[in-house]
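Hi C.,

You asked whether I'd gotten around to modeling the 130-residue construct. I have! Everything is below, sequence then structure, no commentary in between.
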Amino acid sequence: MTSPTEPKPIFQPDHQAYVATEGTRTEMAWGHLRIFTGRGAQPSETTVGICHINPGCHNPLHYHPNCEETIFVLSGRCAHRYGEGEVMLEPGQTILVPRFVVHNASAVGTEPLELLIIFSSGEREAVFLE
């Protein structure tokens, strides 16, 4: 038995699942972002997307004041600036970036870098430093 304050599970036939295939694509000089949920896409409590960085390029140095970011390397090699240091990431590895930590990702080598990016807010904010 559930208490009156606990949310009830949803078993409604009219509750439609949201399935995204393309997302909202934004072209950048260094590659592109595809956002599937969050601002500019399906409203959500999180933001989920793919960050594509062209070989030899990097996204701008930035931080997120209102959310943390989880980054999972799908393909390519990543030199990830994290605060004052740098972490090398390979496919299958994940890094968690807390709020206000300055960071960016660089595609190392001749392959593009594909990152799954997940933010703890559906209204993610980014402050760019370059």
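If it helps when you're writing up: The chain has no helices and eleven strands.

Thanks,
B.
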